[in-house]
Amino acid sequence: MRIRRLSGAALVGATVAGGMHVVTVSGPNASSTRVWLVRDRDGKTVRQRVLSGKLGVPGVTFNGLAEGTWSSGRRLLLSSSIYDDVTRTRFVVVDTRTLRPLRTITLRGAFAFDALSPNGGRLYLLQFPQGLDGGIHYVVRSLNMRTGRLEPGAIVDKTEPDEQMNGVALNRAWSANRTWAYTLYNGGTSHAFIHALDTRTRTARCIDLPWKGEAQTILDTVQMAVKGNALLLTGAGGQAIASVDTQTFAVTLA
Predict the structure, then answer these.
(1) Edge-to-edge strand ranges of the sheet holding 168-174
(2) Are 94 and 100 a contacting pair, CB within 8 Å?
(3) 20 to 30 Å CA-CA from 242: which of 33, 164, 207, 224?
(4) Which residues of the chain have pLDDT under 70?
(5) Cα 192 from Cα 211, distance rounded (Å)
(6) What distance in Å separates the CA atoms of residue 30 and residue 219, rounded to the nearest whole number?
(7) What is the pLDDT at residue 160?
């Protein structure tokens, strides 16, 4: 789900069960968030609720792709933003039928949503150890949703354990079984890459792409899709740019 509009305001929304979307809005200095359950077929507001704190549907990529649901769309994770507070991060689990908050998880420090395992049992996060002053450097962490606690250690590519993670997420694709999350990154002063995260086993691979520096702008409008054992990258008009073997992680340019 990308940006929706409600009463003229641009809002981030999430697809949920029953042909619905959940959208949220809060003002710049808000201490609460208004949440709407909107029916897709006619845009009618089915339910609304006010939640404490400034929250939103998690955005995954720079162009507004949003995620955060599980249990066939019956659960949705809302989160605070690192742009509002780098000292504390809040996550609130919401029942998408009633919009009732079911639990709140609070972490010290700056974290951003990355992905959920298929059953919602594990939450993956981007941790910014130096806050926003650290630029776009981050580490990938995981959180046990049952206990609400971070699991030990960062999730790294074991073939390159010392490589730092730096970049801006541009797009994402999922494997057919919703296990692997493939996220395309602009690597800033370095090179572009795809972060392949196995959300069941808490393992990852970083797939280096040949574009560096300004050449990475070619990826700004790239779409990704998994077909069989290949992750396909296509540009304007569906033109093939590259493919990645999802078994070996080898990159082939078109």
Answers:
(1) 168-174, 180-186, 191-198, 203-212
(2) yes
(3) 164
(4) 1-12, 133-136
(5) 6
(6) 35
(7) 86
Give the CB-side neighbour count of residue 150, counting CA atoms within 13 A: 16
Could you tell me the two tokens for 213?
């520096």
Q: Which tokens go with 193?
A: 């890459």
Mean pLDDT of the chain: 90
Query: What phi, psi does 31 have (nearest 5°)?
Result: -105, 5
Instruction: Report DSSP letters for the chain, one per residue.
Output: --EEEETTEEEEEEEETTTEEEEEE--TT-SEEEEEEEETTT--EEEEEEEES--BPPB-STT--B--EETTTTEEEEE--TTT-SSEEEEEEEETTT--EEEEEEEESEEEEEEE-TTSSEEEEEEETTGGGGTTEEEEEEEETTTTEEPSS---BTTSTTPPEE-EEEEEEE-TTS-EEEEEEE-TTSEEEEEEEETTTTEEEEEEEEEEGGGGGGGTT-EEEEETTEEEEE-GGG-EEEEEETTT--EEE-
Q: What is the largest CA-CA distance in the chain?
A: 51
Per residue in 70-122, pLDDT (tens digit) is 999 999 999 999 989 889 999 999 999 999 999 999 999 999 999 999 999 99
- Which among 105, 107, 126 has a CA at the least distance from the CA of 115? 126
CA pair distance 234, 229, nearest whole angstrom: 16
What pLDDT shows up at residue 6? 36
HEC string of 186-218 equals ECCCCEEEEEEEECCCCEEEEEEEEEEHHHHHH
Give the pLDDT score at 12.
Answer: 57
